[in-house]
Amino acid sequence: MEILINYLQQFGNLNSQQIELIKSKVTSRKTTKEEFYHEAGKIPNEIIFLTEGIMRVCYYNHKGDEITKYFLSENNFLADINSYNQEIPSTEYIQAITDCEYFVLSRQAMKELSATIIQWDQIIAKITAKGLADKVNRISPMMTENAKERYENFLNSFPSANKIPLSYVASYLGITQSSLSRIRKDISL
């Protein structure tokens, strides 16, 4: 639980009573490898803070192909923020790549924390802004890089890349699995 509290405190000061309130609202959960934490078509009613493992966010395009949008590792919040905020069905799936452990804040818990902790909404806004900036910083370079550069940058920015199946990495990079195999072979030479 301390890892979550330490993360939150990077975005705002919390006193001991507020920390205890947050701890009382958080539950712990696990999802096993390859299991879906969230499925498209459902309205997300909670936000999670990943403490162990890797998850991926994916969707199906108009052809029915599964596309990996991004991966998330430990010490990060995860939610389909648009669907969560608007209370509409999500278009994305969230799947555990490895066994995962995480803390859960339900919608009701978030409302109670917002009503009780004066700076809670500011803390969440700062975390959301950081998450969006991180996403843009991941995606923007991919628009101008070739496949080999995208893969090398992915390896540099995602230390746990070796735990992710190559089919998911290829989908994320927007290339075929055979192209990824050639790139990996070229890099290892």
Can you walk me through this structure?
- The protein has 189 residues and is α+β, with helices and mostly antiparallel strands.
- The protein is 48% helix and 22% strand.
- The chain contains 8 helices and 8 strands; from the N terminus they run ααββββββαββααααα.
- It has helices spanning 2-9, 16-25, 81-86, 107-116, 120-144, 147-157, 166-173, 177-188; strands at residues 27-31, 36-38, 46-52, 55-60, 66-72, 76-78, 93-96, 100-106.
- The protein has a 4-stranded antiparallel β-sheet with strand order 1-8-3-6. It has a 4-stranded antiparallel β-sheet with strand order 2-7-4-5.
- A hairpin with a 5-residue loop joins β4 and β5.
- α2 (16-25) runs antiparallel to α4 (107-116).
- The longest helix has 25 residues, at 120-144.
- It is elongated, with a radius of gyration of 18 Å.
- The N and C termini lie far apart (44 Å).
- The model has no long low-confidence stretch (mean pLDDT 92).
The oligomerization state is single chain
Structure summary, number of beta strands:
8
- End-to-end distance, in Å? 44 Å
Structural class: alpha+beta
- State the helicity in percent bands: 40-55%
Identify the strand order in the major beta sheet: 1-8-3-6
Low-confidence region ranges = none
- Put simply, the count of helices is 8
- Tell me about the largest β-sheet: 4 strands, antiparallel
Mean pLDDT: 92
**Principal-axes shape call:** elongated
Note the beta-strand portion.
15-25%
- Evaluate the radius of gyration: 18 Å
Topology as a string of helices (H) and strands (E): HHEEEEEEHEEHHHHH
